[in-house]
Amino acid sequence: MADTKTSLANKPAWVELSSTDQKASQEFYSKLFGWKIEVQDDPQYGGYGMAKVDGKDAAGIGGKQPGDPTPSHWNLYIGTTDAKATAKLVEAAGGKVVAEPFAVGDQGTMAVFQDPSGAFISAWQPTNMGAFNAGAPNTFAWGELNARGIDKAVRFYEKVFGWSVEKQDMGGDMIYHVFKHDGEQVVGGMETPPMVPKEIPSYWLVYFTVSDIDKTFEKVKSLGGREMVPPSDFPGGKFAIVGDPQGAAFGLMMAAPQNK
What we know:
Oligomer: single chain
Order of helices and strands: HEHEEEEHEEEEHEEEEHEEE
Helix content: 10-25%
Mean pLDDT: 91
Largest sheet: 8 strands, mixed
Structural class: alpha+beta
Radius of gyration: 18 Å
Number of helices: 5
Distance between the termini: 37 Å
């Protein structure tokens, strides 16, 4: 596990849905992505479902904590070799430690933070649960920060995770920020577009890779989900943004065909 822990450091390490109805969510995503969901029997995990693709862990689906007023949402975890040290960096960089590092059974240690723009981000220090299935169809594709104050968020992530930033001019007034770790693109971010209602705070959006974005988009709607942004072209392929029946937003992504 030592190599796995190191390879996860400062990169996306896990995605997890906090749902107002975890059983209904588990059914929705199993039908949408073909996930095989194994529900944890141990009471300490509260019926947590582990979604698997080709026998490998791909995502988690659990219930929300009692008293949590937020709607259903996807959480992005960034890997760390020392969650306590990461928490100290968060505070030094102007963020907030929402949940101090704590053990999740014998699987690892997690913590929840809030960056200076208000977006929540989590950290994962693996013990027994290490790398997850990502990049293949129906698994994690990308994480994207929509920030009200992208500049202060960029400085925060540079200090906490050591990310470098490459700015890409997308036309008009839109600048896309690609966060890199050791030269590898890991996540992206941008200023929240003006058309987004002011009551919507900064947030991280989780994207999943699909092999046919148009069919998957229509399937979301047929399963009771909602359309937010229809399939649209971007330099690397096509993307769409949708919402599940419990209200959690997520993205779909399909890479452009490679020229042979």
